[in-house]
Write a structure and sequence with these properties.
With 242 residues, the chain is α+β, with helices and mostly antiparallel strands. The protein has eleven helices and eight strands. The chain has two domains: 115 residues, no CATH class; 71 residues, no CATH class. The structure holds zinc ion (ZN). Zinc ion binds next to loops.
Length: 242
């Protein structure tokens, strides 16, 4: 995996800015890992996808990640800094899980970007859950007879959703947060795909402004401006502003 340079960031931002977030994450990985096809990257269990996005974030923007969350107890906006490398764990075993609940025997597989994309068009959350469950249930039986995932009782569906999560322990990036206002502590989750895209978008906007200012002042080409080191570009920007 390589890090994203300034030209990469503008190119991926231009192509993927109108994509669904699931596809934006894949577009970022395709830029960093051109040796992998879109299908290969979209078939990764979500925990593997997120581990790669964390590595990409680290190599492109550094280890320290600043973000904010809302305290579930008092609604205070909590700013935090977290280390990308601390969130990365060695690749855990990802495999199908079996579940035996209320007379039903199920086999579940971990979710992938393809599944998220399939659920993205759902009318509401309940419909999205139904689609995800339908897709990650590999096999469902009761008394050796096949059962459609849609026909599972509520409690079995809930247990199945939990089993799908356990099939991919890294699918949720969990870390502990504390609220400075009410001292409540909780397990927060980090949506690295969302955060990384927001950072790429912010960097792209800044690069466009820098190109705009330098091109206007000196008549230089975009490719030449992007090809400069950030230090040299900043030095010229300071002179333009002086
Ligand atoms: Zn609080």
């Amino acid at each position: 995996m390589r890090s994203l340079g300034d030209a990469d960031i503008l190119a991926v931002w231009e192509t993927a800015q109108r994509y669904h977030p699931v596809d934006q994450a894949i577009a970022l990985l395709m830029t960093a890992e051109p040796e992998h096809s879109r299908d290969e990257l979209a078939s990764l269990p979500l925990g593997r996808r997120d581990a790669r996005l964390l590595s990409l974030r680290l190599s492109t923007f550094g280890d320290a990640l600043h973000s904010r969350a809302t305290c579930p107890q008092c609604n205070e906006a909590v700013e935090f800094e977290i280390s990308c490398s601390a969130l990365r764990t060695p690749d855990a075993e990802v495999h199908e899980r079996t579940l035996d609940a209320e007379g039903y025997q199920l086999r579940m597989r971990p979710l992938t970007s393809f599944d998220l994309a399939a659920a993205a068009g759902a009318a509401d959350v309940a419909e999205a859950r139904r689609i995800l469950l339908q897709r990650c249930v590999v096999d469902a039986r009761r008394n050796d007879a096949f059962v459609n995932a849609d026909e599972l009782p509520g409690a079995v569906s809930a247990a199945a959703a939990q089993a799908a999560l356990l099939a991919d322990p890294q699918a949720e990036l969990l870390f502990e947060l504390g609220c400075p206002a009410c001292a409540h502590r909780w397990q927060a989750t980090l949506d690295i795909a969302h955060i990384l895209w927001k950072e790429v978008d912010a960097r792209a906007q800044r690069l466009l402004m820098e190109v705009h200012q330098l091109a206007r002042a000196y008549g230089w080409r975009e490719a030449d401006i992007l090809g400069m080191s950030p230090a040299r570009r900043n030095a010229y920007l300071q002179r333009v502003a002086a």
